[in-house]
Structures are given as structure tokens and as C-alpha cells.
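ugh ok fine here u go
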Amino acid sequence: MIPPRALPAALLLALSVLTPARAETIAANYAVQVAGLTVMDLETVLEITDQGYALEFRSRLRGVAAALGGGASTTRVEGVWQGDAARPRRYVSEGTWRGEARRTVVEWPNGQPVVRVMVPPNTEEREPVPEADQRNTVDNLSAIALLVRRVRRNGRCDGTARVYDGRRLSELTARSGGQERFAPARDEWSGVATKCAVEGVYLAGYRRGEDVEAARRPQAGTAWLAGVGPGQPVMPVRVESTNRWFGTAVARLVSYGAPGAAPARAGAN
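structure:
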């Protein structure tokens, strides 16, 4: 079974590498599969403007994964731009895993991260990230917003960010990979999509007693992004991500639209 927090950072990054050039709020829903079985629903909401950004991810285990050990989580952030840099203000990640409540709140007074809430305490699970290594980092959703902004400016997804979520320190890298055509298939999007390779590497904050060498191995992901219909914004239509715990996860776009409105099915056009 897969806790929502174990979904590779590369997958979360890849799921939101591109948004429309217009300043509007977009919601997109994905079904995440492992070995052909749907194990998670992932809902994303993104609002990125010239002044700042707000992102939210909601994940919920389903099917066999939910039966073996249910879990759900919501992660959100709001921040502003300072030149070419993302400056998060408040990051919140909360949910449950196997009945245990989990909550993290990080704020950035003076531009540096300060953990306000950590449940359960990090000392019970992971080695602390040195304070010096926490400096000049952003949370994982702010890293997404930063790369989205770069794509909107130059049409490419290339970029690197050091990420600290209150428990772990990692580095995320995205690289443009040209375009690829998807042939028509049942219940799936088809057409030409932009390919974006994503890699995440953990640098600190390892679980106590785990194999550090194995934990530092890169987690790779690939996203294919395209406009899903005439006049529709470019967004991920398919994402693949590898993970040392459960192999390859595949996320497919299910629906999209304005938050609160009736969503359009990804294969309807």
C-alpha cells in the first residue's frame, strides 16, 4: 500500500509542470495506477499570476490500496514572486495514514523556513535536516510554481530547485525532451504532447535506520503535456514515475476545468 506522502516528489512535480499562459485557476483530476490497478485519486488546483501563486493537491487512496491501509492528504501553499524567485509564505500538509493524523505547517519569515507545526514530531521518524541546509530552499509546491512560471515565459520546463518540506531536503530537476505523438486509444487522450523529464534526489532528512545510499538514488518521472482540446490550456495528459518502493506509477488525466464547475472529460474532445 502507498501512503499519499510516499508518492514520488517527481510525480507531483510532473503533474503540474505546465499551466495556461492566462492568469486563471485550473483544476485537474488524475487517476494513479500501479501494475494496472488504480490506487489513488489526485486532485490539483493551480492559480499562478504575475504577482504570486496558490497551489493545492488532494490525494486519496482507493481500491486495494485503500483496503490495505487507507490514507488521504491535502497539501497547499501560497506565495509571491521576487524577481525570478519563488517566495513561499505558508505551506500546509495534513491528512491521515493508517488512522494516524499527520500535519506540517511551515512559514517563511524573512525568507527562511520555520516549522510551526510538526505532527508526529520529526524526531520519531527522521534525522533532522541541518539548519544551514534549510536556507534558500522552497517547499515542493513552490518548486512546481517556479518551474511553471519558467515554462510560461520560454516554453520549456528546464530548471532546478532545492526543496525543504519540514522533514526532508531534496533537489528537483526538470528538463525538456521534445515532443511525442500518442496514437488513439480507448478512454485515453491522443495527439502530440510535449515531453518533460523530471528527477528528484533526497539530500537529507532520511528515515532513521534506512539505507541512505538507496534513499539517495534518483527518482525519475516523465510527463507528457498538451492542450486537451481546441482553445483549452496545456496540461499534463499522462505521467510516469518510478519509485524504489513500488516500481512505476502511471497517472492519467481524467477531467479538467474551473474549480466548482462541471469538469470536462479528458477524452471528450
